[in-house]
Predict the structure of Triokinase/FMN cyclase.
Amino acid sequence: MTSKKLVNSVADCADDALTGLVACNPSLQLLQGHRVALRSDLDSLKGQVALLAGGGSGHEPAHAGFIGKGMLTGVIAGAVFTSPAVGSILAAIRAVAQAGTAGTLLIVKNYTGDRLNFGLAREQARAEGIPVEMVVIGDDSAFTVLKKAGRRGLCGTVLIHKVAGALAEAGVGLEEITKRVSAVATAMGTLGVSLSSCSVPGSKPTFELSADEVELGLGIHGEAGVRRIKMATADDIVKLMLDHMTNPSNASHVPVHLGSSVVLMVNNLGGLSFLELGIVADAAVRSLEGRGVKIARALVGTFMSALEMPGVSLTLLLVDEPLLKLIDAETTASAWPSTAKVSVTGRKRTRAAPAEPREVADSTAAGGVASKRMVLVLERVCSTLLGLEEHLNALDRAAGDGDCGTTHSRAARAIQEWLKAGPPPASAAQLLSRLSVLLLEKMGGSSGALYGLFLTAAAQPLKAKTDLPAWSAAMDAGLEAMQKYGKAAPGDRTMLDALWAAGQELQAWKSPGADLLQILTKGVKSAEAAAEATKNMEAGAGRASYISSARLDQPDPGAVAAAAILHAILEVLQSQGV
């Protein structure tokens, strides 16, 4: 079965992609009749060396994303994973030559088709009297024994675009640029790993992996790597990659040693989430610095992809200060990241958290028995929520992410750890305030924010008194805050429905001689009935409001959780004979 691709046609996808890039970037122009993109200010480059690169499409943003002042002059694109035509390469060389440039350097990744086609175009151009040089970049560090074909050209090629572009912008001549970038290329290595393959438009995936395997040392055309390894943590996989890349017994290793200074590239191969990319970047930085390697610059993003491949490659380039200046030189290329021109290693990465405000002595602090009762209530609430985790998740799947139970369990475990650390505040107001902070930090999601709002607001009326009218006022304040910031109202099929129903019953606490347990029992029953009734409501707020009501035939998980919390509180108070 072929994969789905958002294209107009398989045959035209490479043309359409390049046309789209040029259409959105006024600094680029297409060369008529060819799949070639050039700087729109080409005529201003008279007397400067032109830099042309390219290869198959499917590696975006490479290569056209790196056209601009300080990087490439132009790019020749082939069909997906296919070398560009000799005629188009020659046309690009002629175009930059006719603009008055001082020779052309072809920057070519080491693949047979690219070497042949760019090499043939170079020879034809030289026969026409156009000065053209060519560098073939092979930065693959996968193979421990070098093959006749040499190392494949991978993401490190983008660093060569940057160095050559800075030299050309500085007015350095063709021969000198060729010599210097060739030397730079020998101090560089790249290694990729992927969770699965990619698929060329109109085709099936290029290889298959089982659920517990990842591919190590693969190229950028969907070809398999040097070996398959078992799925592991990001830290372990990154360590394995760096061990392989820097092992002296590996013929294609990067000679990185204690005290070496490097540029690190963490490259998304196309389908990795930004979350995973950040985790890999962190692992790479920690692993390298743990080896005593100084990271002079770290570039993280998508530079050279393999369509939608969910994988990552790491590139290491040994650098000194003169080379760093070329890396840092200004460029207008749209795909080159804007990074600080300072070392990554040695920088302070954390800032001290602000001091907590001093707690004012509270005259409403409960005595020993009441304080122990608070602990029992919290413990019962936690055990209740942990027991409901799977049920709440199942209810939440109808609305999308299915994590309501997980979120509430996270809160329960955080409260349990907090209770282990020491006794909670004896003051009801301080207890609710501390719980608010804890849930905001540990619970996460909109539930954490809503509970945090509720508890913060509910704490205020309890600063002066903790009698039943004050607790009723606390419920009112919490509900008001939830409605103000959460934008939900009773009947919107949210956790508010259960809390609101209970709050209406708890108004009776404001009457003289009110019975705590009798009224709380009514409040819990109303909350449970309201939670059950949410299955017949149309969602008016929250993520569920985007889902067809026909699919929401179960109670709202947030309302179920809120009712369960109230029930747990009631059970403890009843058992204590309050």
Observations:
- The first strand starts at residue 28 and ends at 30.
- The radius of gyration is 32 Å.
